[in-house]
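User: Fold this; tokens only.

Assistant: Input:
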Amino acid sequence: MKITQELVDHVANLARLDLTGEEAERMQAQLADILGYIGLLDELDLSDVPPTSHVIDMVNVMRDDEAAPSLPLEKGLANAPAREGTAFKVPRIIED
């Protein structure tokens, strides 16, 4: 794909960038270099490489979602400035 000045201007507009003429020329050359490098990947035989979503194996760091005893009600509400029954009482912020 040929990187034209019009394409650079369009991308700069989408990114809300106000490029000077010199910056736009430099961006055109840099984008052409990037796409040229990516084009080299098309020359590789990747038929035996499985598709991946990450370069390294990702492991979920969250704990398993298992039912467990919760904090006792009195301990959970001990520092509440105000409470109503078994819940925190907060000031109303939505007007009718």
